[in-house]
């Protein structure tokens, strides 16, 4: 084949390859701009601090359960319109009503936290404090900040292990399915949706393997957010509303009760420890 003929054959392929590369670069740039815009928007109408809801709930019941919440803005309750409607408050009241024991809530979760920050949240607990049960919800910020799944799960396992060593039962609400965030434009919503589901599966496998319980929030809560976004999301369209937290508290409760010894059958989306003998 002559050099000219070869050039005629190769040139179109080179053009196509170059065009594909430009498309990929363009798509990456679009996603980068969308991610930056989303980070600027998330939570801004709500401020940086969630309502403070820590107190003793249903005090007349006595024999208090120490309930600890760790993690990010969802665990902190950002988006609720009143302290009594945060995730922690609604979970504490439901737990008290089901156990006929009062519940003392302590929220160590911090808005904006990644999984790596669980260590700091634990270190900030008062000397001698020990929760009977801890609920951890974290992962969304790991996805948006592109933290490796392996790194995220290692940090989560460290926190769960530290709690177990203190005699605390642990329930992890896995990373929500971020594809439910209609306010996030495409293609970014699809990308973060896939990443969040991958992280959720890895979180579930990690914590159940070391003796904790997991609740797949994307499965048990996500469909409600998709079906009723105006009701379930707060005004920023990213965080749960009071109604969203009410639903989340309701769906977390069976695993929290199970961690405390309730042997009722768990509903879909709740995962028991792979090995019960690993429980503290």
Please, could you describe this protein's structure?
With 280 residues, this protein is an alpha/beta fold. It has one domain (44-278): Rossmann fold (3-Layer(aba) Sandwich), CATH 3.40.50. Helices cover 49% and strands 10% of the residues. It is built from eleven helices and seven strands. It has helices at residues 3-41, 73-76, 87-99, 118-123, 140-144, 149-165, 188-209, 217-220, 222-227, 229-232, 242-259, and strands at 56-57, 65-71, 103-107, 133-137, 169-173, 213-215, 270-271. It has a seven-stranded mixed beta sheet with strand order 1-3-2-4-5-6-7, sandwiched between helices. Helix 7 links the parallel strand 5 (169-173) and strand 6 (213-215). It is globular, with a radius of gyration of 22 Å.
Extract low-pLDDT stretches: 14-28
- CATH class annotation: Alpha Beta
Instruction: Identify the CATH homologous superfamily.
Output: SGNH hydrolase
Alpha plus pi helix count: 11
Shape: globular
Characterize the main sheet. 7 strands, mixed
Q: Which architecture name does CATH use?
A: 3-Layer(aba) Sandwich
User: Structural class of the helices, strands and pairings?
Assistant: alpha/beta
The succession of helices and strands, N to C, reads HEEHHEHEHHEHEHHHHE
């Amino acid at each position: 084949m002559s050099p000219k003929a070869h050039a005629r054959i190769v040139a179109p392929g080179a053009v196509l390859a170059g065009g594909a590369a430009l498309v990929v670069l363009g798509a990456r740039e679009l996603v980068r701009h969308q991610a930056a815009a989303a980070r600027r928007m998330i939570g801004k109408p709500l401020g940086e601090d969630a309502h403070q809801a820590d107190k003793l709930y249903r005090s007349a019941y006595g024999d208090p359960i120490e309930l600890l919440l760790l993690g990010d803005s969802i665990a902190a309750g950002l988006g609720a319109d009143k302290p009594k409607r945060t995730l922690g408050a609604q979970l504490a009241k439901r737990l008290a009503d089901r156990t006929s024991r009062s519940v003392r809530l302590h929220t160590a979760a911090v808005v904006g936290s990644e999984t790596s920050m669980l260590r700091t949240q634990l270190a900030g607990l008062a000397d001698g404090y020990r929760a009977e049960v801890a609920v951890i919800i974290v992962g969304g910020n790991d996805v948006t900040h592109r933290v490796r799944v392996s790194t995220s799960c290692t940090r989560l396992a460290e926190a769960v292990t530290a709690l177990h060593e203190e005699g605390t039962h642990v329930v992890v609400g896995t990373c929500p399915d971020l594809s439910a965030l209609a306010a996030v434009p495409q293609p970014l919503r699809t990308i973060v949706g896939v990443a969040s589901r991958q992280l959720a599966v890895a979180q579930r496998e990690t914590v159940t393997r070391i003796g904790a319980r997991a609740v797949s929030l994307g499965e048990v809560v996500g469909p409600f957010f998709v079906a009723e976004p105006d009701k379930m999301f707060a005004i920023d369209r990213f965080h749960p509303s009071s109604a969203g937290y009410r639903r989340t508290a309701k769906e977390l409760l069976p695993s929290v009760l199970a961690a405390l010894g309730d042997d009722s059958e768990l509903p879909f989306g709740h995962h028991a420890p792979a090995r019960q003998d690993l429980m503290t």
